[in-house]
Amino acid sequence: MPLALIREGTKTILRSIQGGRGLRGRLAAMGLVPGAEITVLRNGGGGPFVVAVNDNRICIGRGMAMKIEVE
Amino acid sequence: MQRFTVALAGNPNSGKTTIFNRLTGARQRVGNYPGVTVEWKEGVIETEQTHLRFIDLPGTYSLTAYSEEELVARNYLLESGPDLVIDVVDASNLERNLYLTTELLELGLPLVVALNMSDVAVSRGLEIDAAVLARRLGVPVVPMVGRTGRGIDTMLEAVLATVHRRRAPGQTRVDFGEVVEQRIRRLVDAMTQMDGDAPPAAQRRWHAVKLLERDQAVLATPAGRALAALAETSASELDQQGYDTSDITVSRQRYAYIEQLCRGIVKAQRPSDLDRAYRLDRAAMHPVWGVPIFLGLMFLVFNLTFRLGEPFMNLLETGIGELGVALGLLWPEGSTSPLRSLLVDGVIGGVGGVLVFLPNIVLLFLAIALLEGSGYMARAAFVMDRFMSRVGLHGKSFIPLLIGFGCTVPAIMATRTLETRRDRLITMLVLPLMSCGARLPIYALMIPAFFAPRWQGPVLWCLYVTGILLALAGARLLRRALFRGENTPFLMELPPYRMPTIGSLAVQMWIRCWLYVKKAGTVILGVSIILWALTSYPQPPADWSSPEADPADQAAAAMAYSAAGRAGHLLEPVLRPMGFDWRIGTALIGAFAAKEVFVAQMGIVFAVGGDEDNNEALRLQLRQHYGPLVGFCVMLFCLIATPCMATVAVTRQESGSWRWALVQFWGLTVLAWILTTVVYQGGRLLGLGVS
Hints:
The complex is a heterodimer of chains A (71) and B (691). Chain A is an alpha+beta fold and 71 residues long. Chain A has one domain (3-70): Ferrous iron transport protein A (FeoA) (SH3 type barrels), CATH 2.30.30. Chain A has helices at residues 21-29, 62-67; strands spanning 11-17, 37-42, 49-53, 56-60, 68-70. In chain A, strands 4-3-2-1-5 form a five-stranded antiparallel β-sheet. By secondary structure, chain B is α/β, with parallel strands linked by helices. Chain B folds into four domains: 2-164, P-loop containing nucleotide triphosphate hydrolases (Rossmann fold, 3-Layer(aba) Sandwich), CATH 3.40.50.300; 178-265, Helix Hairpins; 280-433, no CATH class; 526-686, no CATH class. Helices cover 61% and strands 8% of the residues of chain B. Chain B has 32 helices and ten strands. At the A-B interface, helix 1, strand 3 and strand 4 of A face helix 3, helix 12, helix 17 and strand 10 of B. Strand 4 (56-60) of chain A pairs antiparallel with strand 10 of chain B.
């Protein structure tokens, strides 16, 4: 299921990322790597997504959120 | 005196720059990496026997270059081989920060880890055993609080001890697990057997890992190309081993190693209370109120900037004026010495005119530094991204565009926060269209001259809106035509809110201030002298006008005779379609120095003097010569065309080459000509506002 469809407040595990290698590398370096536990903090309201990984908060564009597969 | 170069690396938001500022204080030099839009910062410390040169690298998450900044940081580390790297690690975010650390270890560079923000970690209830971490990593780990300076001396000691050591560093490396390690060994062995192209021995492991990740930049190197086949085979083997592609496998192994590294080192005394640091986000990132709050804050910032800056600007203006007078007194009364004219009118007039804005610019920079240091900038980008992405820009572009309403110079410097070169260049190219403060004197002159009071507000508003619409349309066009590709994915870390220290802000202010003055002293000085020469020479012969004639008339006559005046005449064929004559042309030439000069030049050309008190007299002249349509067209042209020389100079600096500064200059000038011509001719056809 794409990350974009996960409701606010839910915890989930990242499965895979469809995207270029550069982007995958950057996401990985920020903590968004398959196997990582993500909490969706913000979904909706017309702006980008906000997720929490460990103690980090990261904003992700909607388009990218569609390309990230989670549990 | 031994000299060493130390590079500071670390994640964005790890407090690296604060530490750099603390170390080097005002002894910093800021410039640009050649050819790219990335800023170069270096500073110096000297102890009794050692000279340490610090390079503050752009913040990176890893050595996989995704943005231009990361590429610059990585290339610097690979090619310039600093004597030591200080890895600034955010203690409250240890595992993520160690990702970069492991890559730095792989490069084989001597390392010292600055465990920064220890106070934040403690306040979150985290206890980190630095000694054990140091032992496991094989490098010194120094707990620090960059904000207060605590730990800085210990860190400097570690740095000095490490650089003076002669033997090779005994640093650990990531153990990627046998499956991956086997492939790494294979690649490293192959490199050992290569002749010329192999990377230096210390870097081979890093290169091998990158090849397994299919890193494009590394594959493009001579070594990469030579080993391409072997690299692809090894990477494919890894692909087949598991669910992920080889680059993901490598990343996951890295994190697995880090997790093991941190086992027993990080103890949580109590559950993480992270929400407190993000409390303000309920308002700042509110779906409905986020944008109004942002706009309100910006309004406040601008207001404060101009309110606080005005007394200082007036002071400077008076001071510079007095300086000019004092200098002039060195010559006998009524002297026509060219040197006097050069110094008083050319240098002090030109450079002084630009320096007068220093207070405003410094305050704008202060505001930017405060917004950025506190973490609010990220929220602003988040809130505005929705709108910016419609024209193909990143949310972060909004702030520089907004600052452009104050002054284009700091706005162009603010584009540094944008991640991609493409976003930076596009924003820089359209920025001058945001009507800056310097154009206000032109509007203040022209609007009351031609428009009845009830039309004055709307006309001003119309100009501002035109600028904004053109900027957005321009950005869209540039995205479609020159800078194609997908919208930059919005990916941004949201740092916890922080309070930047006064010291850090003060240092940044000083640096920007100094940069602006330096710019004034070089490029602007040069252009001022050239413009002075163009408007003063050739001088009319002594009998051109009678000595009893009004000095203003004499000045007007001299202007007409000068090179600038003649250029104005020469340009007439180009100016006519817009409804302009040679006088406006001459004034526009002067306006290149600084927009406000337009008003002064018009004053001279119409023989009413350049004072503000003479504006009514000048308006009278303008009404007699032109109609409202031309008046509007002049303002339109000034809005779109010829960014002032300070802007061009800063664009050249921030974009890394003259190419883009010239594209900006000529692009906007041509656009201005086309649009103004269309408006003028169209207006004439429709019979609007022609007197």
